[in-house]
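Fig. S4 source data, part A: sequence.
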Amino acid sequence: MGFDKFCSLDSSDPFWDWNRTWYTANPDLTQCFQNTVLVWLPCLYLWMCAPIYLIYLRSHDHGYICMSHLNKAKTAVGLLLWIICWSDVFYSFWERSHGTSVPALVHHVSPTLLGLTMLLATLVIQYERMKGVQSSGVMLIYWLLALLCATVTFRSKIFQALEQPLTVNVWRYATFYIFYALLLISLFLSCLTDQPPLFSQAIKDSNPCPEPGASFLSRITFWWITRMMVTGYKRPLEDKDLWSLNSEDRSQRVVPQLVRRWNTECQKIKRTEQKTVYSPKRVTHTEGKEGQAVEESEILIVKKTQKTKEPSLFWALCLTFGPYFLISCLYKIIQDVLMFVGPEILRLLIGFVNDSSAPSWQGYFYTALLFICTCVQSLILQKYFHVCFVSGMRLRTAIIGAVYRKALVISSAARRTSTVGEIVNLMSVDAQRFMDLITYINMIWSAPLQVVLALYFLWQNLGPSVLAGVAVMVLMVPINAVIAMKTKTYQVAQMKSKDNRIKLMNEMLNGIKVLKLYAWELAFKDKVSEIRESELRVLKKAAYLGAVSTFTWICAPFLVALSTFSVFVLIDERNVLDAEKAFVSLALFNILRFPLNMLPMVISSMVQASVSLKRLRVFLSHEELQEDSVEHKAVAGSTHSISIVDGVFSWSRAEPPALSGLNVCVPEGSLVAVVGHVGSGKSSLLSALLGEMDKLEGSVAVKGSVAYVSQQAWIQNSTLKDNIMFGQERRENWYQRVVEACALQPDLEILPAGDETEIGEKGVNLSGGQKQRVSLARAVYCDRGVYLLDDPLSAVDAHVGKHIFDQVIGPQGLLKDKTRVLVTHGLSYLPQADLILVLVEGQITEMGSYQHLMATQGAFAEFLRTYAAVEHTDNDEPVPKSGTKGMENGSATALAGSPGVSSVSKLSPTAEENKVLGKKAKDPEVGKLMEADKAGTGQVKLSVFWAYLKAIGVLLSCISLLLFLAHHLASLFSNYWLSLWTDDPVVNGTQPNRQMRLGVYGALGLSQGVAVFGYSLSTSIGGILASRCLHQSMLYDVLRSPMSFFERTPSGNLVNRFAKEMDTIDSVIPSIIKMFMGSMFNVMGACVIILMATPLLAIIIPVLGLLYFFVQRFYVASSRQLKRLESVSRSPIYTHFNETLLGTSVIRAFGEQERFIRESDQRVDHNQKAYYPSIVANRWLAVRLEFVGNCIVSFAALFAVIARESLSPGIMGLSISYALQLTASLTWLVRMSSDVETNIVAVERVKEYSDTEKEAEWKHEPSSLPPGWPTDGCIDIRGLGLRYRPDLDLAIHNITININKGEKVSLHITALKPVSVFGGELMREWV
C-alpha cells in the first residue's frame, strides 16, 4: 500500500489494524494513523474555517483592542508552537543528512503542515484583536480538537515508552511533550476573554449586557447570566438590575431595516402597476363625455391590478431577519443528525450485552460516546433555540415599531377602517403570534427530515414491515390538514370578536365618567359579555378540534409501532421480535413522536400567523397622508404666509369634497378669523392647511413652521410642565411669560406640585378650560411662524377668553408678529382681525375686514345676528383681577390633591393664601397621580392556583388528573409488556405466544387513546370555563371601581389585562397545563422503569434529583420575576400608543413625529430588556438540566454494562430507551413548571382588581320608602361635604340648600367655582 510506504519506508507501520485497535483488551491506534489523521484533522478544520471567518471579521468590525497581557501570551505560545513544529522538520532533515536512519516522508510533511497551521493560528489571533473579538469560538474549537487528537498520541507514547523503551526517539518525545504542554496552555488561554475594544458601547453604558464580553465557553453554556440569576435568587429582581439591550437588538437598529424592506416591496408593486397601466399626468378637465370615459376606465384598470398583486410583508420579513435566522437552520441540521446517534448506540449496547466475548472496555467506550454525543446535542439545541428566540424578539420589536410609525402617517379615510382596538391587537396579539411561531418554524423542514431518517433506520431494523407504519402516518396527514383549515376559520372569527371586545373596552374606558353618571355600567357589561360569549363559542369549537388533533398525534407513534410490529411478526413465523429490534425501533418511534406531535402545532401556529400576517399587511398597506399636499418652502418675493389656490379637499377620495373652490392669501403676521355656522367646514379648513385632508385639486403653501391648537385639547399623561414645553428646551423667562399670558399662573399656585403636577390620562384632573389653556400654552411656547387655532376660547369663560385674546392672540399679544388663523364664535374679537373668512357649506362665501363685511350685509351679517344675543349676555360679566383670573370650569385642586375650598361662604383664597399655597408642597411626589403597573414579588401564591382551579371546577380537575394517570399507566405497562415479549424464548425459530402478546399490546394502546382523548377534552373545556369566569369577574370588578380608580390607573394597564393577559388565559395556560402534566408523568414513569432495570441507580437518582430541584428553584425565582417585569413594562407601550393615536394631528402639526417614535422605541426596548434575560435564563436552565438528564442516561448505560451478566436484554433495552427520553422530558418538565408559574401570573394580574375599593352594589334591597315616593320634586341638602378620593381634603363641605318643588336654580360662582365637582359628585351620590 502506498499509504503504508508514506508512514514507514519498509511498510512495517500499517495505516489501520483491527486486531490492534478493536479486538483487544488494550486498544491503541497505529503510529501511521496518529502521524497522519490525528495531526491533519485539526489543521484541515482551521484551513477550511479561516477564509470564511476572516471574511466575517472583516465585515463585522467591533473596534480595536490594545495589546494586553493575554494577547501577548496567546501570541507567544502560538510562536513557540510554530518553532517546535519547525524544529521537528529540521530534525528530520538532520537525520536524513547524517544517515543514522532515513525518516519516512510523513515526518517531513506532518510537522510542516502543523507549523504552517500554527502560524495561521497566530495570525488569526492578531487579526481578531484588531477587529475587537474578545473571545473566539473558532480558535477554542481548534485548540480543543488539536489537544484531543494529541491526547491519543500522548497515551500511546507513554505505553510505548513503558513497553518498548528501546524504540523511543528522545528528541521527538521531548518536542511532543513540550508541544502537548503548550497546547494545554493555548486551550486555557483561549477560554479567557480579552478587554473590551476602544470606544465600545460597554464602556459608555452604565449597566451593559455582559454577553458581548463573555468568553466562548460562557456563551455556549450561558454562564454569563449566572450573576443576574444569583441576584434574583437572593432578592426579587428590580428594573435597575436589568442590563441594557445589545445594540443589534434595539429598536433604532431593527425597525428601520424592516420599514426599508417593506417600502421597497411597496415601491415594486407601484412600479409594476405603472408598467401595466397607461396613466398619463392629470390633464385639465374637459367637459366632454370622451374625457370622462377615459378617466373612468383608467381607474377601473388600476383597481383590478391592485386586487391581483399585493406587496409581500412575508418577503420583507424574510429579507430583514432571514440571514441571522439561517444560523438556526445549521444548528438544527446538526442536532437532527445527532438525535439518531442515541438509538444506534443503544443497538450497539444491546449487541454488547448479548455478546459475552466482547471486551468490557467497549461497553465503557459506548457509554462515554453516548454521554459526549448527548452533551454536544444539548449545547447545539440550546444555541438553536437561542437564535430562534432572539429572532422572534427582534421580529416583535420591528412589527411594533412599524405599526407605530404607520399609525402616525395613516390617512383619515384609512383610520376609519382600523379601530384603536384592532391596532392595539396588531401590536400585542399579532406580534406575539409571530414570536411564538418563529421558535418552531424550522420544524416545517426539520420534521420531515427527522421522519425520513427515522424510517431509514427502521427499515434497516425491521425491513419492509415499516411500510405499514408509513401508511398509518400518511393517513394522519389529511385528517390533520382538515383540522388545520377549520382552525384557521375559527382563528379569524376569534380575532374579529377579540378586536370588537377591545374596541368596546377602549371606548368604555375613554368615556367611563359618562358611563358612571348615567349608571350604564350594567348595560355595557352585558354588551362586552355578549361579544365575549361569541369569542368563547369559537374557542370551544377550536378546543374540540384540538382534542381530536391531540388524540390522533399522541396515538400516532403507538399506532405506527403496533402496525409495524404486527406486520413484522405476522408475515413470517420466522420473524422474531428480539430486544435489539424492539427497543431500537421503540427509541426511533419515540424520536418520531416529536416531529409528529410538533408538526400539527407548527401548522396551527402558521395558520394563526398567516391570519396575523394578512392583518398586518392590510394595515401597513393603508393609504398614507399626501406628503406633498402642503408646500412648506418659502416662495421668493412672496409676502404671503398662507396661500390656497383653487383648493378642493376631501376626507376620503371616495367621498364628495368637504371643501371646494378655496382661494385664500394670508399676509405674514396677520390675524385671520374664520367664522361660520356649525358644520360649515371651519375645522376642515385648518385640517387642510395641516395636510390632514386629501387634496383633490389646487395648491396649498404654508411658509414657516406650524403650531396647532385643536378644538378638543389633547393632553399627555405627563407633568404640566412637560405638556407645555412639548419636548423643547427650557427657557425660563419665556416660559413664565407664556404661563402668565395663558392665565395658568393661578392654576400653578393651587396645583399640589405646581407645574410638576402629573396630569392624568386625557387630562382627567384638569377642567375643559384648563386643558384648552395648557394646549394653547404649548403652541405659544413652541414659538412657531404660523398658528392654527381651532376655537381655543370656546371652553373658557368670557373674561378669561378676553384676557387670553388680549395677552396672546390679539394685536398686542405675544403672537402679534406671527400669522394666526383663529376659528371662533366670539364676535367681540372680530373687529381686531385683519381678515375675516366666512365659510358656508365648505366654501368661502365672503372675505375681508370687519368693516367691509358689515357693509356688505351678506352671510357674515346673518352669522353676527345669530350669535350676537349670546355674546351680549356673556359680556356683561365683570373681569376679575389678576389674583383670581383664569380659574373656571372647576379647579384642579379637587382632583390633584390640595384643599382649595373651605366653606360655602369662603370659596376664593386671598392673595396671602395663594402665596402660601404656591410655596407649599412643590415636591413632584405630591403631584403624582397615575399609579404605574407594579410587578408582584416572590412566589406566585397558592391562592392564585386555587382561584384558577375553582374557576375550572374541582370535579373537572380531578377527572382530568385521573385520565392523565390512566393514560400513562397504560403506556408504561404496554412497554413493559413489550420487554417481556422480547425475552420470550425462541422455539424452533419462532415465539409461541406472539398472538396473545400482540393482542394485549394492542388493547393497552387502545385504552391509551381513549384516555388521551378524554383528558385533552376535559383540560380544554376546563380552560374555557376558567376563561369565562375570570373575564366576567374582572369586568365586574373594573366597572364597579370608583372614578378615582380610573383617574389613577392608566388605560393601557386595563387594556393590557383585557387583551394580553386574557389571551394568555384563553389559549396559553390550558395547553401548558396539559404539557406539564404529560411531562411530569413521563419523568415519573421513566424513573420507575430505570430503577426496575438497574437498582444501582437508586444511589445516583436522589443526588441528581436534588441537583435538579435546586437548579429548578434557583431558576424559577429569577424567571418568575423577569416575567412580571416584562408584563409590567408592556402596559406603557400600549398606553403611549393609545395616547399617540388620539393626538396624531397635533403631533404631526408640530412635526414631533421623530420624538414620539423615539419614546415608543424606548418603551419597547425597556420591555425587551426584561424579556431578553428571561429567554437566556431558559437556555441557562435547559443546558444544566439536560446535563443532569445526560448523566442519568450515562449512569443507566454504565450500570447496565457493569451488570451485563445478570441483566436480560429486554429489560436493559427498555431501561435505556426510557433513559434516552428522560433528558427531553426533564427539560420539558422544568420549562413547563416554570411556564405554568410565569403564565399563571396572568391570573394573578387579572385577579388584582378584585381587592381594590369598590362602589356600592348596583342593585339594592327593596326600599322601605312608601311606593310612589317621591311625590314632590324638592331637594333638601343639609351639611353636605364631598371629596374626590378618601386621601384628599373636602372639595365642598357644609353645604345646606333647600329647593322647593317647581323652583329653577342656577349655580353661579365667579372665582373658584367647583360646579363640575358639585354637579358630578352630587349626581353620583343621588343615583
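Fig. S4 source data, part B ends here. The longest strand covers residues 640-650.
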